[in-house]
Specification:
Helix content: under 10%
Number of helices: 0
Strand content: 35-45%
Number of strands: 16
Radius of gyration: 22 Å
Shape: elongated
Order of helices and strands: EEEEEEEEEEEEEEEE
Largest sheet: 7 strands, antiparallel
Length: 203
């Protein structure tokens, strides 16, 4: 039985067990990464995730993390994971992003740079950014076409991670076949934090 205090939970009765819609979630048994259901035959089913499924709202209710990126209805021009205590957002004009990791502290992805380097490791040139168009969203991606001339920047937002891809449609005019393109990102971290690379090469 579900205690009466939980019947005011914002998700009371809304979450169904896949394959058994008659099962009732015992919402008082929710944890950060699990849900427990009472089945019609009196048995129980618990679903779990290796990642977080819920976060605590202002009333200390475990509520579901919406893992589908969307436009931020509270802040114009933002796209990302909004309904979470650890949001990940991208500015659709600038491409700047913010990934909250704990208690309003997190990483800020400020800007990116593209250099042309020759075979000796010497900088040949810095590629200027193209005309800045608003990013176009599709699924969990936001694409900035011609972020640099003939090079697109694609930012991928997932429930607990953020990734940037670069799509080279053609080589920059300032480079030749023996040159290398070097993409770099400026990332701001909170005071006292560090970005480290493990000895195995995994970030």
């Amino acid at each position: 039985e579900i205690p009466s205090v939980y019947r005011s939970h914002p998700e009371f009765g809304k979450i169904k067990l896949e394959g058994s819609p008659e099962s009732v979630e015992l919402i008082q048994k929710r944890t950060e990464n699990s849900r427990t259901f009472l089945n019609p035959d009196g048995s129980f089913t618990t679903t779990q995730s290796s990642g977080r499924m819920h976060y605590k709202d202002a009333s200390s209710n475990w509520v579901s993390i919406d893992v589908t990126p969307a436009n931020n209805l509270r802040t114009a021009g933002e796209f990302g994971i909004i309904n979470s205590d650890l949001p990940i957002t991208v500015n659709k004009q600038s491409g700047q992003a913010r990934m909250i990791l704990e208690q309003d502290a997190g990483l800020e992805f400020i800007t990116s740079r593209l250099n042309v380097i020759n075979s000796k490791g010497e900088e040949v040139s810095v590629i200027a950014k193209g005309s800045q168009n608003e990013g176009q969203t599709s699924g969990n991606e936001i694409q900035f076409r011609n972020y640099w001339p003939q090079i697109d920047r694609v930012q991928v937002v997932e429930a607990d991670r953020f990734k940037t891809n670069y799509v080279i449609n053609s080589s920059p005019q300032a480079s030749n076949e023996n040159d290398f393109l070097v993409f770099s990102e400026v990332i701001k971290v909170p005071a006292g934090w560090q970005i480290r690379k493990s000895t195995s090469g995994q970030e």
